[in-house]
Amino acid sequence: MAYTSSLHLSKHLLLPKPHRARPSSSRSPSFVRAARVVDGAPHVNGQSKKAPNGKVQINGAGEKGAVNGHGKKGPGVVNGKTHVNGHDRIHLSVTTGGGGQDGTGLRVAYQGAPGAYSEFAAKTALPGCETVPCRAFADALAAVDRGLVDRAILPVESTMEGTALRNYDLLLRHDLVVAQEINLFVHYCLLAMPGVRATEVRRVISHPMALAHCGRALARLGVDREPVEDTAGAVEMLRSNMMLDTAAIASPRAADLYGLDVLAHGLQDESWNVTRFLLLSKPPSPVAVPVDADAKTSMVVAHRGGSMAVVLKVLSAFSSRNINMSKLEVINNEGGVGEPRPPVMILDTGARGAPTLRAFPHVLYVDCEGAADDPLVREAIKEIEKFAVFVRVLGCYAADTNVYDLQ
Protein backbone atom coordinates (compact mmCIF):
# COMPACT_ATOMS: atom_id res chain seq x y z
CA MET A 1 0.00 0.00 0.00
CA ALA A 2 1.21 3.49 -0.70
CA TYR A 3 -0.16 6.79 0.48
CA THR A 4 0.91 10.34 -0.15
CA SER A 5 -0.02 13.44 1.76
CA SER A 6 -2.35 15.77 -0.11
CA LEU A 7 -3.40 18.18 2.61
CA HIS A 8 -1.28 20.89 3.63
CA LEU A 9 -0.18 29.94 11.96
CA SER A 10 0.77 32.81 12.08
CA LYS A 11 -1.89 35.10 13.49
CA HIS A 12 -2.50 36.92 10.20
CA LEU A 13 -3.65 33.67 8.55
CA LEU A 14 -6.69 33.32 10.79
CA LEU A 15 -9.84 33.87 8.76
CA PRO A 16 -12.27 36.61 9.80
CA LYS A 17 -15.81 35.82 10.87
CA PRO A 18 -18.28 36.09 7.97
CA HIS A 19 -20.91 38.73 7.51
CA ARG A 20 -24.15 37.08 8.55
CA ALA A 21 -27.06 37.72 6.28
CA ARG A 22 -29.59 37.04 9.03
CA PRO A 23 -29.71 38.54 12.51
CA SER A 24 -28.61 36.16 15.24
CA SER A 25 -27.48 36.06 18.82
CA SER A 26 -23.96 37.28 19.52
CA ARG A 27 -23.21 34.07 21.35
CA SER A 28 -21.52 31.18 19.63
CA PRO A 29 -23.89 28.36 18.67
CA SER A 30 -23.97 25.42 21.05
CA PHE A 31 -25.02 21.86 20.44
CA VAL A 32 -27.19 19.86 22.81
CA ARG A 33 -29.01 16.56 22.59
CA ALA A 34 -32.48 16.89 21.21
CA ALA A 35 -35.28 15.36 23.24
CA ARG A 36 -36.95 13.89 20.18
CA VAL A 37 -36.92 13.96 16.41
CA VAL A 38 -40.03 15.30 14.74
CA ASP A 39 -41.28 14.05 11.37
CA GLY A 40 -38.47 11.55 10.90
CA ALA A 41 -35.08 12.01 9.27
CA PRO A 42 -34.09 13.59 5.95
CA HIS A 43 -34.51 11.65 2.73
CA VAL A 44 -31.54 9.42 2.04
CA ASN A 45 -30.65 7.30 -0.97
CA GLY A 46 -34.01 7.06 -2.67
CA GLN A 47 -35.12 8.56 -5.99
CA SER A 48 -34.89 12.20 -7.01
CA LYS A 49 -38.18 14.02 -6.96
CA LYS A 50 -39.03 17.59 -7.97
CA ALA A 51 -41.43 19.54 -5.81
CA PRO A 52 -43.84 22.25 -7.02
CA ASN A 53 -41.87 24.98 -5.23
CA GLY A 54 -38.80 24.36 -7.35
CA LYS A 55 -36.91 22.54 -4.63
CA VAL A 56 -35.55 19.09 -5.25
CA GLN A 57 -35.62 16.14 -2.87
CA ILE A 58 -32.34 14.39 -3.64
CA ASN A 59 -31.87 10.78 -2.50
CA GLY A 60 -35.34 10.79 -0.94
CA ALA A 61 -38.27 8.52 -1.59
CA GLY A 62 -40.88 11.24 -1.54
CA GLU A 63 -41.91 10.40 2.03
CA LYS A 64 -40.51 11.94 5.18
CA GLY A 65 -37.93 9.87 6.96
CA ALA A 66 -37.09 7.49 4.13
CA VAL A 67 -33.68 5.91 4.72
CA ASN A 68 -31.93 3.95 1.93
CA GLY A 69 -35.17 4.19 -0.01
CA HIS A 70 -37.17 2.31 2.61
CA GLY A 71 -39.85 3.24 5.11
CA LYS A 72 -42.19 6.18 5.44
CA LYS A 73 -41.76 7.22 9.02
CA GLY A 74 -38.01 7.19 9.16
CA PRO A 75 -35.63 5.21 11.35
CA GLY A 76 -36.63 4.35 14.88
CA VAL A 77 -35.82 6.98 17.49
CA VAL A 78 -35.12 5.65 20.98
CA ASN A 79 -33.91 7.85 23.84
CA GLY A 80 -32.88 10.59 21.45
CA LYS A 81 -30.93 8.22 19.19
CA THR A 82 -31.70 7.14 15.63
CA HIS A 83 -30.78 3.61 14.67
CA VAL A 84 -29.36 3.46 11.13
CA ASN A 85 -27.53 0.48 9.62
CA GLY A 86 -27.09 -1.04 13.07
CA HIS A 87 -25.45 2.05 14.58
CA ASP A 88 -26.64 4.76 16.96
CA ARG A 89 -26.77 8.34 15.74
CA ILE A 90 -27.22 10.87 18.52
CA HIS A 91 -29.36 13.74 17.31
CA LEU A 92 -28.27 17.25 18.28
CA SER A 93 -30.20 20.48 18.04
CA VAL A 94 -28.60 23.87 17.44
CA THR A 95 -29.30 26.75 19.78
CA THR A 96 -27.99 30.32 19.73
CA GLY A 97 -27.65 30.76 23.47
CA GLY A 98 -27.01 28.82 26.64
CA GLY A 99 -25.61 25.34 26.04
CA GLY A 100 -23.26 23.18 28.04
CA GLN A 101 -20.22 24.26 30.00
CA ASP A 102 -17.72 21.83 28.48
CA GLY A 103 -14.95 23.70 26.73
CA THR A 104 -15.97 27.12 28.01
CA GLY A 105 -12.99 29.45 27.73
CA LEU A 106 -11.15 27.25 25.22
CA ARG A 107 -10.26 28.35 21.69
CA VAL A 108 -10.32 25.61 19.03
CA ALA A 109 -8.76 26.09 15.59
CA TYR A 110 -10.20 24.37 12.53
CA GLN A 111 -9.64 24.46 8.78
CA GLY A 112 -12.20 26.27 6.68
CA ALA A 113 -14.76 29.03 7.00
CA PRO A 114 -17.45 29.29 9.69
CA GLY A 115 -20.06 26.61 9.08
CA ALA A 116 -17.49 23.96 8.13
CA TYR A 117 -18.01 20.41 9.35
CA SER A 118 -14.83 20.66 11.42
CA GLU A 119 -16.44 23.53 13.31
CA PHE A 120 -19.52 21.34 13.90
CA ALA A 121 -17.30 18.63 15.31
CA ALA A 122 -15.48 21.07 17.61
CA LYS A 123 -18.75 22.45 18.93
CA THR A 124 -20.11 18.95 19.43
CA ALA A 125 -17.07 17.86 21.42
CA LEU A 126 -16.71 21.14 23.36
CA PRO A 127 -20.06 22.99 23.29
CA GLY A 128 -18.80 26.07 25.11
CA CYS A 129 -15.61 26.62 23.11
CA GLU A 130 -14.78 29.51 20.79
CA THR A 131 -13.96 28.29 17.29
CA VAL A 132 -11.19 29.90 15.23
CA PRO A 133 -11.22 29.40 11.43
CA CYS A 134 -7.89 28.85 9.64
CA ARG A 135 -6.93 28.69 5.98
CA ALA A 136 -5.25 25.27 6.11
CA PHE A 137 -4.97 22.26 8.41
CA ALA A 138 -1.30 23.05 8.97
CA ASP A 139 -2.26 26.55 10.11
CA ALA A 140 -4.62 25.10 12.73
CA LEU A 141 -1.84 22.93 14.18
CA ALA A 142 0.63 25.82 14.11
CA ALA A 143 -1.88 27.93 16.05
CA VAL A 144 -1.71 25.40 18.89
CA ASP A 145 2.09 25.25 18.70
CA ARG A 146 2.31 29.03 19.05
CA GLY A 147 -0.22 29.30 21.85
CA LEU A 148 -2.77 31.22 19.79
CA VAL A 149 -5.43 28.59 20.55
CA ASP A 150 -5.89 25.77 23.05
CA ARG A 151 -6.87 22.99 20.64
CA ALA A 152 -6.96 22.12 16.97
CA ILE A 153 -9.42 19.72 15.38
CA LEU A 154 -8.55 17.52 12.40
CA PRO A 155 -10.65 15.12 10.32
CA VAL A 156 -8.55 11.97 10.04
CA GLU A 157 -10.73 9.29 8.44
CA SER A 158 -14.19 8.69 7.02
CA THR A 159 -16.38 5.73 6.13
CA MET A 160 -16.36 6.71 2.45
CA GLU A 161 -12.72 7.72 2.02
CA GLY A 162 -10.87 5.69 4.64
CA THR A 163 -7.79 7.61 5.77
CA ALA A 164 -7.28 9.37 2.43
CA LEU A 165 -7.54 12.61 4.42
CA ARG A 166 -3.91 12.01 5.43
CA ASN A 167 -3.99 14.46 8.29
CA TYR A 168 -2.12 11.91 10.36
CA ASP A 169 0.94 13.05 8.40
CA LEU A 170 0.48 16.55 9.76
CA LEU A 171 -0.03 15.33 13.31
CA LEU A 172 3.25 13.41 13.20
CA ARG A 173 5.18 16.59 12.34
CA HIS A 174 4.04 18.42 15.49
CA ASP A 175 4.61 17.96 19.20
CA LEU A 176 0.90 17.62 19.93
CA VAL A 177 -1.19 14.92 21.61
CA VAL A 178 -4.67 13.55 20.96
CA ALA A 179 -6.95 14.76 23.76
CA GLN A 180 -10.34 13.68 22.41
CA GLU A 181 -12.12 11.99 19.50
CA ILE A 182 -15.50 12.72 17.95
CA ASN A 183 -17.45 10.96 15.18
CA LEU A 184 -19.79 13.14 13.14
CA PHE A 185 -22.45 12.07 10.66
CA VAL A 186 -21.88 14.24 7.59
CA HIS A 187 -25.16 15.42 6.10
CA TYR A 188 -24.72 17.25 2.80
CA CYS A 189 -27.18 19.89 1.57
CA LEU A 190 -27.50 21.75 -1.72
CA LEU A 191 -27.53 25.50 -1.00
CA ALA A 192 -28.32 28.45 -3.28
CA MET A 193 -29.00 32.17 -3.13
CA PRO A 194 -32.47 33.12 -1.85
CA GLY A 195 -35.10 32.71 -4.54
CA VAL A 196 -32.96 30.59 -6.84
CA ARG A 197 -34.78 27.46 -8.04
CA ALA A 198 -33.08 24.10 -8.51
CA THR A 199 -33.88 24.18 -12.22
CA GLU A 200 -31.82 27.40 -12.55
CA VAL A 201 -28.62 25.86 -11.16
CA ARG A 202 -25.97 25.16 -13.79
CA ARG A 203 -22.91 24.61 -11.57
CA VAL A 204 -22.18 23.20 -8.10
CA ILE A 205 -19.10 24.15 -6.06
CA SER A 206 -17.69 22.47 -2.95
CA HIS A 207 -14.72 20.61 -1.49
CA PRO A 208 -13.54 17.85 -3.89
CA MET A 209 -14.44 15.15 -1.38
CA ALA A 210 -17.97 16.53 -0.95
CA LEU A 211 -18.42 16.56 -4.74
CA ALA A 212 -17.24 12.95 -4.90
CA HIS A 213 -19.53 11.88 -2.05
CA CYS A 214 -22.53 13.35 -3.92
CA GLY A 215 -21.61 12.16 -7.40
CA ARG A 216 -24.79 10.25 -8.22
CA ALA A 217 -27.08 13.06 -7.07
CA LEU A 218 -25.13 15.65 -9.06
CA ALA A 219 -25.24 13.43 -12.15
CA ARG A 220 -29.03 13.30 -11.89
CA LEU A 221 -29.13 17.09 -11.63
CA GLY A 222 -26.95 17.38 -14.74
CA VAL A 223 -24.76 20.22 -13.42
CA ASP A 224 -21.11 21.12 -13.80
CA ARG A 225 -18.85 20.58 -10.77
CA GLU A 226 -16.10 22.89 -9.57
CA PRO A 227 -13.86 22.03 -6.59
CA VAL A 228 -12.90 24.69 -4.02
CA GLU A 229 -10.96 24.61 -0.74
CA ASP A 230 -13.78 23.63 1.62
CA THR A 231 -17.55 23.34 1.92
CA ALA A 232 -18.16 26.44 4.00
CA GLY A 233 -15.74 28.38 1.80
CA ALA A 234 -17.91 27.45 -1.18
CA VAL A 235 -20.92 28.95 0.59
CA GLU A 236 -18.95 32.09 1.43
CA MET A 237 -17.94 32.41 -2.25
CA LEU A 238 -21.51 31.86 -3.37
CA ARG A 239 -22.82 34.59 -1.10
CA SER A 240 -20.09 37.18 -1.62
CA ASN A 241 -20.24 36.89 -5.42
CA MET A 242 -24.07 36.71 -5.59
CA MET A 243 -23.94 33.66 -7.87
CA LEU A 244 -27.45 33.04 -9.18
CA ASP A 245 -26.67 30.07 -11.45
CA THR A 246 -24.51 28.24 -8.91
CA ALA A 247 -25.22 26.11 -5.85
CA ALA A 248 -22.89 24.85 -3.10
CA ILE A 249 -22.71 21.58 -1.17
CA ALA A 250 -22.35 22.30 2.53
CA SER A 251 -23.97 21.81 5.92
CA PRO A 252 -27.45 22.97 6.96
CA ARG A 253 -25.87 25.33 9.50
CA ALA A 254 -23.93 27.02 6.71
CA ALA A 255 -27.28 27.90 5.15
CA ASP A 256 -28.34 29.64 8.36
CA LEU A 257 -25.02 31.44 8.79
CA TYR A 258 -24.99 32.88 5.28
CA GLY A 259 -28.71 33.31 4.67
CA LEU A 260 -29.05 30.79 1.84
CA ASP A 261 -31.88 28.50 0.77
CA VAL A 262 -31.62 24.72 1.11
CA LEU A 263 -32.63 23.18 -2.22
CA ALA A 264 -32.03 19.58 -1.15
CA HIS A 265 -31.16 17.57 1.96
CA GLY A 266 -29.27 14.28 2.13
CA LEU A 267 -27.29 14.79 -1.06
CA GLN A 268 -24.66 12.15 -0.17
CA ASP A 269 -24.63 8.93 -2.20
CA GLU A 270 -24.28 6.68 0.85
CA SER A 271 -26.56 7.01 3.86
CA TRP A 272 -23.85 6.07 6.37
CA ASN A 273 -21.30 8.87 5.92
CA VAL A 274 -19.29 9.36 9.11
CA THR A 275 -16.05 11.30 9.66
CA ARG A 276 -13.79 10.84 12.67
CA PHE A 277 -12.14 13.94 14.12
CA LEU A 278 -9.32 14.27 16.65
CA LEU A 279 -8.85 17.21 19.01
CA LEU A 280 -5.18 18.00 19.59
CA SER A 281 -3.41 19.98 22.29
CA LYS A 282 0.07 20.62 23.58
CA PRO A 283 1.48 17.86 25.79
CA PRO A 284 0.83 16.72 28.38
CA SER A 285 -2.82 16.01 27.64
CA PRO A 286 -5.06 18.49 29.48
CA VAL A 287 -7.90 15.94 29.61
CA ALA A 288 -7.84 13.27 32.30
CA VAL A 289 -9.51 9.99 31.33
CA PRO A 290 -12.10 9.08 33.98
CA VAL A 291 -11.30 5.89 35.87
CA ASP A 292 -14.58 4.26 34.84
CA ALA A 293 -14.33 5.34 31.17
CA ASP A 294 -13.24 3.20 28.24
CA ALA A 295 -9.83 4.49 27.19
CA LYS A 296 -8.07 4.40 23.85
CA THR A 297 -4.35 4.82 23.14
CA SER A 298 -3.03 5.93 19.73
CA MET A 299 0.56 5.43 18.63
CA VAL A 300 2.81 5.34 15.59
CA VAL A 301 5.35 2.57 15.00
CA ALA A 302 8.11 3.25 12.45
CA HIS A 303 10.61 0.83 10.90
CA ARG A 304 12.88 0.57 7.87
CA GLY A 305 12.36 -2.94 6.49
CA GLY A 306 10.57 -6.26 6.89
CA SER A 307 7.15 -4.65 6.91
CA MET A 308 5.08 -7.84 7.26
CA ALA A 309 7.29 -9.20 10.05
CA VAL A 310 6.84 -6.00 12.03
CA VAL A 311 3.06 -6.10 11.53
CA LEU A 312 2.91 -9.66 12.87
CA LYS A 313 5.05 -8.76 15.88
CA VAL A 314 2.83 -5.75 16.68
CA LEU A 315 -0.27 -7.95 16.47
CA SER A 316 1.38 -10.51 18.74
CA ALA A 317 2.34 -7.87 21.33
CA PHE A 318 -1.31 -6.94 21.79
CA SER A 319 -3.05 -10.29 21.23
CA SER A 320 -0.81 -12.11 23.71
CA ARG A 321 -2.11 -9.71 26.37
CA ASN A 322 -5.75 -9.84 25.20
CA ILE A 323 -5.67 -6.16 24.18
CA ASN A 324 -8.09 -5.26 21.41
CA MET A 325 -6.89 -3.10 18.54
CA SER A 326 -9.42 -0.72 16.99
CA LYS A 327 -7.12 0.50 14.22
CA LEU A 328 -4.10 -0.83 12.35
CA GLU A 329 -3.00 0.98 9.21
CA VAL A 330 0.18 0.12 7.35
CA ILE A 331 1.95 2.85 5.36
CA ASN A 332 4.60 1.70 2.91
CA ASN A 333 6.31 4.59 1.13
CA GLU A 334 9.31 2.65 -0.14
CA GLY A 335 8.75 3.10 -3.88
CA GLY A 336 10.10 0.83 -6.59
CA VAL A 337 12.09 1.70 -9.70
CA GLY A 338 10.79 4.91 -11.26
CA GLU A 339 8.26 5.25 -8.45
CA PRO A 340 9.80 7.57 -5.83
CA ARG A 341 7.59 8.31 -2.85
CA PRO A 342 8.32 10.73 -0.02
CA PRO A 343 9.06 9.14 3.34
CA VAL A 344 6.83 9.74 6.35
CA MET A 345 8.27 12.52 8.49
CA ILE A 346 7.86 12.07 12.25
CA LEU A 347 8.88 14.55 14.94
CA ASP A 348 11.00 12.71 17.49
CA THR A 349 9.91 14.48 20.67
CA GLY A 350 12.23 12.35 22.81
CA ALA A 351 15.40 13.26 20.93
CA ARG A 352 18.25 14.81 22.87
CA GLY A 353 18.20 18.58 22.58
CA ALA A 354 15.48 19.99 20.34
CA PRO A 355 12.81 17.70 18.82
CA THR A 356 14.02 16.40 15.45
CA LEU A 357 12.14 15.37 12.30
CA ARG A 358 13.03 11.84 11.20
CA ALA A 359 12.18 10.12 7.91
CA PHE A 360 10.78 6.58 7.74
CA PRO A 361 9.66 4.52 4.73
CA HIS A 362 7.39 2.22 6.79
CA VAL A 363 4.89 3.38 9.41
CA LEU A 364 2.08 1.71 11.32
CA TYR A 365 -0.78 3.69 12.88
CA VAL A 366 -2.18 1.80 15.86
CA ASP A 367 -5.18 2.42 18.11
CA CYS A 368 -5.66 0.01 21.00
CA GLU A 369 -8.18 -0.27 23.80
CA GLY A 370 -6.84 0.69 27.21
CA ALA A 371 -4.97 3.58 28.81
CA ALA A 372 -1.30 4.17 28.10
CA ASP A 373 -0.50 3.76 31.81
CA ASP A 374 -2.32 0.42 32.04
CA PRO A 375 0.32 -2.20 32.96
CA LEU A 376 -0.60 -4.49 30.04
CA VAL A 377 -0.57 -1.66 27.51
CA ARG A 378 2.79 -0.47 28.87
CA GLU A 379 4.18 -3.99 28.48
CA ALA A 380 2.96 -4.19 24.89
CA ILE A 381 4.57 -0.85 24.02
CA LYS A 382 7.87 -1.90 25.61
CA GLU A 383 7.83 -5.12 23.60
CA ILE A 384 7.23 -3.19 20.38
CA GLU A 385 10.08 -0.79 21.20
CA LYS A 386 12.49 -3.74 21.23
CA PHE A 387 12.04 -4.52 17.51
CA ALA A 388 10.75 -1.21 16.05
CA VAL A 389 13.09 1.62 15.10
CA PHE A 390 10.81 4.24 16.61
CA VAL A 391 7.59 4.33 18.68
CA ARG A 392 5.67 7.44 19.65
CA VAL A 393 2.46 7.49 21.68
CA LEU A 394 0.17 10.07 20.07
CA GLY A 395 -2.32 10.26 22.92
CA CYS A 396 -4.48 8.51 25.48
CA TYR A 397 -8.11 9.63 25.64
CA ALA A 398 -11.64 8.50 26.42
CA ALA A 399 -13.07 6.34 23.64
CA ASP A 400 -16.29 7.76 22.19
CA THR A 401 -18.18 5.26 20.04
CA ASN A 402 -21.20 7.55 19.54
CA VAL A 403 -21.92 9.03 16.13
CA TYR A 404 -23.26 12.57 16.49
CA ASP A 405 -25.81 13.90 14.06
CA LEU A 406 -26.74 17.58 13.70
CA GLN A 407 -30.09 16.83 12.09
From TrEMBL:
Annotated InterPro entries: ACT-like_dom_sf, Preph_deHydtase, Preph_deHydtase_CS
Assigned GO CC terms: chloroplast; cytoplasm
Domain Prephenate dehydratase as annotated: residue spans: 107-282
Pfam families referenced in this protein's UniProt entry, alphabetically: PDT
Keywords: Amino-acid biosynthesis, Aromatic amino acid biosynthesis, Lyase, Phenylalanine biosynthesis
Positions with biased composition (Low complexity): 1-16
Superkingdom of origin organism: Eukaryota
Region span, Disordered: 1-30, 42-74
An annotated Gene Ontology molecular function: arogenate dehydratase activity
Pathway: Amino-acid biosynthesis
Protein name from the UniProt record: Prephenate dehydratase domain-containing protein
Source species: Triticum aestivum
